[in-house]
Amino acid sequence: MLKLLNPIFTELWIEHMKLEPYQIMWDHFYKNINNTIQNVVIPKGIFEFKDNINNITNNPDSLRNPYEYFLYLLHRHLTKHPFHWKKLQGRIYSRLPEQKVREFNDNEVLEKLNGILGILSKDRQNMEFIWILHINMVITAISQNQDVSTISITLRKLVQRASENRDNFYLIKHYLQGLSFIFNNTVTLDVNQNCLLNSWMTSYMVACSHTDLCTLLQLLIDVLKKAESVGKWSHFRPIYLDFVIPTLKQIAVTNNVGQIGKLAGLISMNIPELNSSLLPYFCNETIDINVTNEFLTTILENIHIASITVQQHNILISAWCRISLLCSDTISDDLSQKIFSLPAIRNVVLIENVDEPFVDFIKALNKQINQTNLFRLKELCEACFGNIDKWIVPHLTASKLDSQVLYLYTKMSLLFLYCAPLLYQKSKSVCLLNRLITVLLLPTDVLTGKSPPGNILHAVEKTWHLFFKGIYKLDHISDPYIDRTLRDLIIRYVPHFSTVNSPIINILDNNDIITYALEKITNNFLLHSARSSEENTFKAIKTIQNILQISVDLERIRTIIKKVLPGIFDVIIFNSQKSAALDVVKFITSAEWYNYVHDDVRNSIQNVTAKHLAFNTNNYFQLVSILQKYMPEDVRASLPQIKEQITHVERMRGVGFDNTLRQALKRIEDTC
């Protein structure tokens, strides 16, 4: 029916329309109020509520019931005849029961509605729809350029109360949605919008969910930028100083939300007197790296390098190193370039490329080791990496992802490879290098024979050769600590490494290093004096066999034979892993390069003869008997040296003829 009357009311009679038809319609709807509102759909959010209002005022085709259509017609009429509102207002207010409105007055409509909402019970005030009404009243007031400090009093009290009870945090989501609309859709901030942000934020930020925290932080970032751009920062400054910064400092320790750092950085830029305290705080090792990264990025995007004090250089450099080391694909090249332009770095090293900033930086340090004052380089390393052992400890747990631990070990192994001489100070009982070795490679559990957690062992396997090569650059000959460390890296990890793809394979390209490593393996796992467990001896033998199987360089093969074959012979003589040792002998004698290593094999036979003939006679001749089966030519060629050694033993024993030795020799000669 109302749709049929629409053309008459809004077109034909619009200029001379009287109020009486609307008063009659209001009386009708009021008398049938229960039927009128029973089909009303309560909006679920601020924007749905605004859409409903917009439809009622501008889109009659979308209206769902006669009452909404009545409101549409009334809006059209009052827009044309605003002076009629006072008459209809009196009629509406006089018909509302007193107990529903209590102290209702004649202030503006927003204030009246605010008064009604303010006298509701607490349970009703916590209804989502009531919050939506409050928020839309504030939005409406702002759209009419009205001061919101009064109209929002009840709403602000509700928000404060809700922030103290996590069960009511879902209501604050509506409030944040409204604030986002307010600050993003108003050109100016002239109606005291700053009063909408206050102490409620403190308890809310501390206890809300990750998603809700991100929402609030982004809102605060947008508000700060908006206030700065429209010249109203002074109105918001106390809020950020009193409520935001203290809370950011609190939650930065336990949260990894990067927006915390970004917001702190923006505040620091807009409140310069805070910079000296915020910079060291948000770059501290106790702060999550995502937070520090955003803080650092924001700071360096907004200030010139020249304005950074000398005392702050080391703080920035250390923070950059921590981020680069602990977080993959996070730090930007622009940020790295700005760090590299700091005098503390620029005056010491030249960094030509920034494809991989952290790696390029440590490579640049390496290039300067023999060209620059070593003291200055070590000073820079201390500034960059002085607390690195503290940074990495929380990340070396069994719960960390394999990829995260491997990333960390890769970066650290490259640091060792290129900068070990800068990390080590022989004159100090405890320096950065030995602290890092203890944390990364040789903790107490590993030194006592326990295997590290799977993710850490996997990372060590992938990077062991880089650590080893880096430490080997130091003076292992005259420095017992370095020699002991290198030995421990071998003997503590060979039992835990795979025998098929052992990391030792990756040091075969350096003859000095592989010679050193094979000596340690032989001395600690193969020789009779090593007193190695059978299991560890077996692993060492299989590792050596695998190394021989993949080796193609003849000189490298000869080096391996020289270093390990005497130990293999010892295993055959004394150890229950004789079968595994014989597998190595069989492989050597069947290899296509066997003819090139006869001299090395014969030297090994002569060495074991000199070592064991006198004191382990029976075991020795059992070995020779076995070797005759696999390498008869080498045994035959070694007979003169064996005879000579027998004569030497007889002389040492003070006898001219030892029947046991001579009989054993005769059996060998007869077999050959």
Automatic annotation (TrEMBL):
One of its GO terms (cellular component) is nuclear replication fork. Residues 335-669 form the MMS22-like C-terminal domain. InterPro entries: MMS22-like, MMS22L_C. GO terms for biological process: double-strand break repair via homologous recombination; replication fork processing. Pfam families: MMS22L_C. This is S-phase genomic integrity recombination mediator, C-terminal.
